[in-house]
Q: What sequence folds into this?
C-alpha cells in the first residue's frame, strides 16, 4: 500500500512513504537515508531482509523455548527481537516483543511480578501468535516496498 | 615390709634389741666420752654435751658416719625425744648447747630393757610423711586448680575459635569450589568464543571476496583490517585466558570472608555497633575475641598460653582496612577495575580538513552489539559520519579487540545484554587497559539502578535503544569533541539532522549539569562510599548469603551487599541469566532525575524525534565528574 509513495521519499520528512501504522516512518526513514542510491536501496534492503531472516529464526527459537517452557530464553529472545524491530521502527512487532520479554521475565505488563509461570507462558503463547501476524503484515508491506523499488 | 624390720630380724637373731640401741648404750658405757656424751644425771636420758666433737669423733667410731642430723633422725625412729628445757624447767642443766635425748625404756641401769626399744612402726611413720607432703602441696593445689580453671576456660575459647574456623573453612571451601566453577565456566565461554571468532574470521574472509554491495563497503573495509589482525587477537585472548588470576581473587575473597565471618560469629551486636572502618586501633572492634582474651591472660598466669589466639585476633584486625578494596576487586569479572583513574579524552587533532566533521584524524569506533540489524545500522550511521567502525558481536569479542589493538578505538558503543559476556563486564575489563576511552552503553533498560551500575563500571554515557542516527552522532560529537574540526558548531550539527527542528543540539554544553549523568554518577560513587561504611553492619546478612553459594547468578558474595553493583557483580550473571540482572520495578522507577518521559516504556514512545533524542542528550555523565 505504500509502494506508490516510494519515489518521493527522501530527506524531506514531509514526503515519507506511507507504510502504515505498524511502521514508524521516522525511524524507518533513517535507514532509508543511509542508502547511497534511492534506486536500488542497497543498504536498507539488505538490512530489512536481514531482519526478516533474523525474525524468522527468532520466532522458531521462541516456539522451541515455549515448548520447553523456558521463560528465560523467551525473555532473551523477546529482548533480542525487540532491539532490531525497534531499530527498524517496526512499532507493533517491537511492542509485542517487549510484552514477550516482560512475560518471560515473569512480570505483568505494568512491570509487577507475576509468579504464575503457566500464566506467563500462556500469555506468551498468545502474544507470539499476535507478533507473528504483525510481523507477517510488515514483512509484506516492506517486501512490497522494496520489490517495487 | 620395710627394710628396717628385715634388718632387725637379720641382726636381732634371738633378741629383739636393735643394733642401733646397743651401739648407743655401748657408746655411753665408755667413760672416755663423758666430756662429750654421757648419761644424764638421773640416768634416764643421755646428753650430747659437745655437738661438734661428738659428730667428728664419736659418731664415726660407733655409727660409721659423721652426720649429727642423721643420728637425731635415727633416735627419732626409735622414739627417742629431745628434752626441751626452755619451757618450765628453765635452763638445761647440761648447758644451752647440749642435746638431751630420752626414751622411757632407755636407762643406764636397765641394759636388759634395751630390747623393748624398737623402731617405730613403719606405717605411722609413712603416714606422717605423707601428711607433711600434703601440707606442702595444699598451696600447690590451689595454684593448680586455678590453673586448671584458667586452662579450661582457655580450652573453651579455643573450641569456640575452632568452631568459627571450621565454619569459615567450610565457607571458604564452598566459595573456592564455586569460584572454580565460575572460572571453569568462563574459561569455557572464552574458548567457545575464540573458536567462534576463528570461524567468524573465516566467514568474513570468505564473505569479503565475493564482494558485497556498495552499502556494505564501509563495513567490509573495516572487517578487512579486522581480519588481518585476528590471529593476534586470538592469541591475546588466549593469553588473557592463561593469565586469569583466579587464585589471587579467591584468596582475597576468602580473606575478607574470614574477617567478616569472625566479626559476625563473634558478636553480632558488637560487629554492628563498633566502627569497623575506623582506625585499626581496635579497642572495641571485636570484644568477643578481645576482652575474654585479656581476662584469660590474667587467669592463665601460671601457664601464659594466650599465644595463638592473640596474634590471631590481631591479624584480623589488621585485615580490616584492606577488606573493602579487596571486595571491590573481587567483584570485577576476574580483574581489577580501575575506573576511578579515568582521565580525560584522547589528544586533540586540530588540523582542518574539508568534507568531514573530523579534524586531522578520524575517530575509530567500536560498536559492540549482538543484534545484526542494530549493528549494521549503527555502523552505517557511523560510517556515514566518516568514522572508522568495527563491530564486536558480544562483550568478549569487544574485550579481545581492545586488547589486541590498545588505544586503537577512540570510542566504544556497548550493548548491555549480550551473549557470552555482557556489556557491563566487558566495560569493566576494558577499563583495565583503556581507562580513558569513552564507552557508551546502548540499552533500552534505563532505570536508575541500571544507570548507576553502568556508570560505576566505567561507562561514560548512555545511548537509548533503539538508537537513532542523531543520537549516536550526538554522543560521538560530545565524547570526541577533540576530534572535531570545529567543535562547537551547533548549526552544522543541526543541518545533519533530518529532524533537526525537533532534535536536541547534540553538544554537551547546555545540558552538562542537569543531565542524568550527574545524578546516577554521584549516587553511584556515594553509594560505594556508603557501602564501605555500612557493610559491617550488614555483615550478618552478608555472611548469610555466603552460606548459599550454590546459585550461579549470585556468583560473588559481594553481590548481596549493594544492589548498585548488581549488574556488574559478576560477569557470568548477565551471561547466564540476562533477566536476573534486572530490577522488578523496571518500568515504575524510571529515572526520576531525567525529567523526561521514558520513551521506551510508553507504548507509543516510538517517535524517535521527540522522546529518545531529548533523553539522550541528557543522558551523559559529565566526564570531569567521573575523574573525581
A:
Amino acid at each position: 500500500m505504500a509502494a506508490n509513495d516510494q519515489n518521493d521519499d527522501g530527506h524531506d520528512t514531509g514526503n515519507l512513504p506511507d507504510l502504515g501504522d505498524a511502521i514508524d516512518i521516522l525511524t524507518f526513514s533513517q535507514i532509508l537515508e543511509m542508502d547511497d542510491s534511492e534506486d536500488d536501496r542497497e543498504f536498507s534492503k539488505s538490512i530489512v531482509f536481514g531482519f526478516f531472516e533474523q525474525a524468522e529464526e527468532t520466532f522458531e527459537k521462541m516456539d522451541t523455548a515455549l515448548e520447553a517452557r523456558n521463560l528465560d530464553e523467551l525473555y532473551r529472545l523477546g529482548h533480542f527481537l525487540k532491539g532490531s524491530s525497534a531499530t527498524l521502527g517496526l512499532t507493533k512487532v517491537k511492542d509485542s516483543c517487549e510484552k514477550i520479554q516482560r512475560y518471560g521475565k515473569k512480570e505483568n505488563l505494568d512491570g509487577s511480578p507475576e509468579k504464575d509461570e503457566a500464566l506467563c507462558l500462556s500469555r506468551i503463547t498468545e502474544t507470539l501468535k499476535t507478533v507473528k501476524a504483525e510481523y507477517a503484515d510488515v514483512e509484506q508491506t516492506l517486501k512490497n516496498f522494496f520489490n517495487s523499488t | 615390709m620395710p627394710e628396717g624390720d628385715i634388718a632387725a630380724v637379720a641382726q636381732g637373731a634371738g633378741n629383739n634389741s636393735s643394733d642401733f640401741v646397743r651401739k648407743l648404750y655401748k657408746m655411753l658405757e665408755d667413760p672416755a666420752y663423758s666430756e662429750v656424751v654421757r648419761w644424764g644425771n638421773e640416768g634416764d636420758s643421755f646428753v650430747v654435751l659437745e655437738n661438734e666433737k661428738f659428730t667428728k669423733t664419736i659418731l664415726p667410731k660407733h655409727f660409721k658416719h659423721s652426720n649429727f642430723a642423721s643420728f637425731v633422725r635415727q633416735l627419732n625412729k626409735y622414739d627417742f625425744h629431745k628434752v626441751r628445757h626452755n619451757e618450765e624447767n628453765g635452763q638445761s642443766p647440761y648447758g644451752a648447747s647440749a642435746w638431751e635425748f630420752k626414751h622411757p625404756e632407755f636407762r643406764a641401769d636397765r641394759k636388759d630393757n634395751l630390747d623393748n626399744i624398737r623402731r617405730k612402726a613403719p606405717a605411722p611413720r609413712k603416714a606422717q610423711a605423707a601428711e607433711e607432703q600434703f601440707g606442702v602441696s595444699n598451696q600447690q593445689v590451689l595454684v593448680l586448680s586455678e590453673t586448671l580453671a584458667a586452662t579450661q576456660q582457655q580450652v573453651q575459647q579455643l573450641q569456640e575459635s575452632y568452631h568459627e574456623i571450621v565454619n569459615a573453612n567450610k565457607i571458604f571451601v564452598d566459595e573456592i569450589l564455586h569460584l572454580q566453577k565460575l572460572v571453569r565456566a568462563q574459561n569455557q565461554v572464552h574458548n567457545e568464543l575464540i573458536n567462534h571468532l576463528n570461524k567468524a574470521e573465516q566467514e568474513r574472509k570468505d564473505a569479503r571476496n565475493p564482494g558485497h554491495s556498495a552499502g556494505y563497503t564501509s563495513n567490509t573495509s573495516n572487517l578487512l583490517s579486522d581480519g588481518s589482525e585476528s590471529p593476534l587477537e586470538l592469541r591475546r585472548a588466549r593469553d588473557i585466558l592463561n593469565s586469569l588470576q583466579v587464585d589471587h581473587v579467591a584468596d582475597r575473597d576468602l580473606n575478607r570472608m574470614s574477617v567478616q565471618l569472625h566479626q559476625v560469629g563473634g558478636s553480632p551486636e558488637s560487629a554492628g555497633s563498633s566502627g569497623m572502618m575506623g582506625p585499626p586501633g581496635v579497642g572495641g572492634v571485636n570484644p568477643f575475641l578481645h576482652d575474654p582474651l585479656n581476662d584469660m591472660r590474667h587467669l592463665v598466669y601460671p601457664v601464659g598460653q594466650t599465644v595463638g589466639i592473640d596474634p590471631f585476633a590481631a591479624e584480623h584486625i589488621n585485615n580490616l582496612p584492606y577488606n573493602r578494596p579487596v571486595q571491590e576487586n573481587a567483584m570485577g569479572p576476574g580483574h581489577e577495575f580501575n575506573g576511578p583513574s579515568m582521565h580525560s579524552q584522547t589528544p586533540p587533532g586540530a588540523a582542518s580538513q574539508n568534507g568531514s566533521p573530523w579534524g586531522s584524524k578520524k575517530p575509530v569506533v567500536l560498536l559492540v552489539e549482538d543484534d545484526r540489524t542494530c549493528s549494521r545500522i549503527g555502523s552505517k550511521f557511523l560510517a556515514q559520519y566518516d568514522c572508522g567502525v568495527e563491530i564486536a558481536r558480544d562483550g568478549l569479542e569487544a574485550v579481545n579487540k581492545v586488547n589486541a589493538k590498545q588505544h586503537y578505538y577512540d570510542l566504544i558503543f556497548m550493548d548491555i545484554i549480550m551473549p557470552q559476556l555482557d556489556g557491563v563486564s566487558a566495560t569493566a575489563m576494558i577499563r583495565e587497559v583503556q581507562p580513558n576511552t569513552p564507552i557508551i552503553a546502548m540499552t533500552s533498560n534505563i532505570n536508575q539502578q541500571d544507570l548507576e551500575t553502568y556508570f560505576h563500571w566505567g561507562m561514560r554515557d548512555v545511548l537509548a535503544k533503539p538508537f537513532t542516527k542523531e543520537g549516536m552522532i550526538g554522543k560521538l560529537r560530545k565524547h570526541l569533541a577533540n576530534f572535531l574540526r570545529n567543535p562547537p558548531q551547533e548549526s552544522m550539527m543541526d543541518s545533519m539532522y533530518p529532524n533537526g527542528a525537533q532534535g536536541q543540539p547534540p553538544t554537551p554544553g547546555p545540558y552538562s549539569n542537569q543531565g542524568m549523568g550527574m545524578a546516577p554518577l554521584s549516587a553511584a560513587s556515594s553509594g560505594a562510599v556508603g557501602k564501605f561504611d555500612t557493610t559491617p553492619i550488614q555483615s550478618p546478612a552478608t555472611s548469610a548469603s555466603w552460606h548459599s553459594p550454590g546459585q550461579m547468578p549470585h556468583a560473588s558474595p559481594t553481590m548481596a551487599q549493594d544492589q548498585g553493583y548488581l549488574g556488574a557483580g559478576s560477569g557470568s550473571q548477565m551471561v547466564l541469566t540476562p533477566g536476573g540482572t534486572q530490577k522488578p520495578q523496571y518500568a515504575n522507577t524510571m529515572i526520576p532525575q531525567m525529567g523526561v518521559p521514558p520513551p521506551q516504556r510508553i507504548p507509543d514512545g516510538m517517535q524517535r524525534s521527540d522522546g529518545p533524542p531529548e533523553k539522550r542528550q541528557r543522558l551523559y555523565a559529565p566526564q570531569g565528574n567521573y575523574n573525581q
Summary: Chain A has one domain: 19-142. The radius of gyration of chain A is 17 Å. Chain A touches chain B through 42 residues (CB under 8 Å). Helices of chain A lie at 25-33, 42-67, 71-88, 91-104, 117-147.
